[in-house]
Structure formats: C-alpha cells, structure tokens
Design goal:
By secondary structure, the protein is an alpha/beta fold. It folds into 2 domains: 129 residues, Rossmann fold; 154 residues, Glycogen Phosphorylase B (Rossmann fold), CATH 3.40.50. The protein is 35% helix and 15% strand. It has 14 helices and 12 strands. The strands form 2 sheets. It has a 6-stranded parallel sheet with strand order 2-1-3-4-5-6, with helices on both faces. Helix 5 packs parallel to helix 10. It is globular and about 65 Å long.
Length: 370
C-alpha cells in the first residue's frame, strides 16, 4: 500500500503534529509512505490536510485512489466533498462530517513522547497542569477556576498553564484563578511534555464553552410540548466540533490522572473513578479534583489505569495499524440524503403548530422554570 500525505501548509500546527505520527506508517509491513508531493497517480491512499484538500485534482489523476481528508474544519468542509473518508480528531468531528462522509477514522492528534515514569516534582504544592490552546485555557473560567479557588482553602496548589503564549498572547487576569492558587504560565516548547507536564500530579482538560445565563437560556429554548419532559435540571453543553482526546493522551503517557469536562472524546477514554473523572460544573470539578488531592495512592492508581488504557489502544503504532486496516477494507463512499437537513425545522414547525397548546404548556413550564 502506497500512502501519500500532502498539504501546502507544512508549518501549520495540525500538520506538524500529524506528520510525525503518519511517518511511522512506514514501520508497517507492506506500507510505503511519502509526503508533500502532488504525485497522485502513483499512490493507493492520498491524505490531504483539511486546510487545502485537492480532492478533484487527485481524483482526476487517479480515479482508483482512496482519498482521505485529515482534520477538516467547518470553513473547509465543503471543499472536502468527494473524498472517500474523513480522518477525524474524535467523535465530534466525525459527527460534523457525517453529512458528507459515511466512513471516518478517528486519529487523535497528540505528541507521542519518550516513555517516562510519572515523576511529580516533590514540591510542597500539588501541581495541576493544563496544556493545549489558549481558547480552552480561558474556558477554565468560571467553573474550573472557581473549583480550584475553593480547593486551595484545603490544599496548596500550583496551576501550570502550557500553551503557545508568544503566538496567541497572554490570558487576561480576570479568567485566571485568584491569588491563593499559584499560577505559572509556561511557554510551549518541544520538551515541555517530558519536563513541565511530566511533573504534574493531576492533569486537567477543560473543553466546554461557557454559556451566558444558562437558566434563562434553558427556559427560552425549552420545547413547548410537555411530551419532551423538559426540566430545569437538564444540562446545556457547548463544545467545538474540533474537540478531541489529544490533551488527555499527553497526560496518559506519564500515568497522570485527568479531570476533564464531559465531552464525547473524553467520555471515550475516561471512566469515572477508575482512570480519572468527568465533570461539567464547579461542583463536579471540585469533587473530582479533591478526590485526587486527598489521596496520593489513589492518584497513582488512577494514573496507572489511564497509562494502561493508552498502551492498549492509543499508541501511535496501534492507531496506525488500525488505520491501515481501515484503508484496506474501505467500502464505497455514500453521502447522507440532503432531506435530513430539515430535521430541526420539523421540530420547530410542530412545536409551534397549536396556539392553544402553547399557552397551556407555557403555564406548566413556569413550575420548572420560574
């Protein structure tokens, strides 16, 4: 099998992370890997980055090739049309691309670092570490930052926030926890995963975008038909279609237990109380973090369980072997029917169909949304 990976955006972050892992496809027997060319005619599988998928050009030169698009983003999704499959970061991106792709392979983007036993710093503070982009770091506010502030009343904490500060700029102070939580902003560098991150006691993976006035929002968007059983206690969650488990997997290699927001990619890996915790508000974040702070042996047990999960399913070698098998067994592509686009409009239409019912339900909803 001859595999080509190509893009004009060689220095983009997603390209840099993916290319290091795709290069290891050459370790698999029967696979010949090459990159950054337009030699479409002489390859069996052609992978384009989502920045610039040249699907039509590749199809014109090689109609028999299996074409995949890697890490597609909402603005370029239409340009990926006609490809045979999507290489998605996680289930969020798979769902986003389902309109065009019936075949999707989930290939987490993360740096595989040299194996090293988890080596906490030994300082008198519990080190809680974030790594990723600036947007998700800011999304710690307010639920994670508030939990950290309350937890700092019981335990001395150090929060390390690792991202590309030089490129993305500093986080405004108003989005950081209060002074009782010692906070260090760390500029990302190539060795940060085996140095700063490896010293952490607990990893955190915030992902949910804050929602303004959530109780009011639930009241406004609640269905009028009582058959849906809308309640004020229901959870509203916003997460990006590009969310992925990569940030969790960086911690898992060192055996560092993780507390993460509840989003699909995290739920695929984290099992509550076994290898970490899932949370979605300040209360659940506080309890998950406190459970790990109070008992160092429990931290080690959960961290080891997460490390074993990584070794079992998420090494680059294991992912690449699954990917090659996926390509070999790929069936013809099939787009979803355009008629599915009216699914939400059907709900809106029927939810407004009976004016009398609306008045009755509006009164009843006051019980649940005062």
């Amino acid at each position: 099998m001859r595999i080509l990976f190509t893009t004009q955006h060689k220095n983009a972050i997603s390209t840099v992370l993916n290319v290091e892992n795709f290069r290891r496809l050459a370790e698999i027997d029967g696979v010949n890997y090459s990159e950054f060319s337009v030699d479409y005619a002489n390859h069996d599988v052609i992978l384009f980055m989502g920045y610039d998928p040249q699907v039509n050009a590749a199809r014109g030169e090689n109609p028999e090739a299996k074409i995949g698009v890697v890490d597609v983003r909402p603005p370029t999704l239409k340009e990926a049309r006609g490809a045979d499959f999507l290489v998605a970061n996680g289930p969020e991106m798979t769902a986003m691309g389902a309109r065009l792709f019936n075949h999707s392979f989930e290939y987490p983007i993360y740096p595989e670092v040299p194996p090293r036993n988890h080596a906490p710093s030994g300082k008198d503070r519990i080190i809680i570490c974030y790594h990723g982009n600036k947007a998700h770091a800011v999304s710690m506010f307010p639920h994670v930052t508030r939990a950290l502030e309350e937890l700092s009343r019981e335990y001395p904490l150090e929060l390390r926030i690792i991202y590309n500060v030089e490129s993305l700029g500093p986080i405004p102070d108003r989005y950081l926890p209060g002074a009782d939580v010692k906070t260090r902003i760390v500029q990302w560098h190539s060795e940060v995963y085996t140095q700063e991150l490896a010293e952490a006691d607990i990893g955190i993976v915030p992902d949910l975008t804050p929602i303004h006035a959530p109780e009011k929002t639930k009241r406004i968007c609640a269905p009028r038909d009582r058959e849906f059983g809308a309640q004020a206690t229901e959870v509203l969650a916003r997460y990006k279609p590009t969310s992925n488990p990569g940030r969790i997997l960086a911690f898992s290699q060192h055996g560092i237990p993780v507390v993460a927001d509840s989003f699909p990619s995290a739920a695929q890996i984290i099992r509550n109380g076994e290898n970490g915790f899932l949370a979605n508000d300040a209360f659940s974040w506080y309890q998950g973090l406190r459970n790990l702070c109070v008992d160092p042996e429990y931290r080690q047990t959960l961290g080891q369980a997460l490390k074993e999960e990584h070794a079992k399913r998420y090494t680059i070698e294991a992912i690449n072997r699954r990917f090659v098998n996926f390509c070999r067994g790929l069936q013809p592509r099939h787009e979803a029917p355009e008629s599915l686009a009216n699914a939400q409009s059907l709900f809106e239409e029927r939810d407004r169909s009976d004016e009398t019912l609306k008045k009755v339900i509006a009164q009843k909803m006051k019980k649940f949304f005062p």
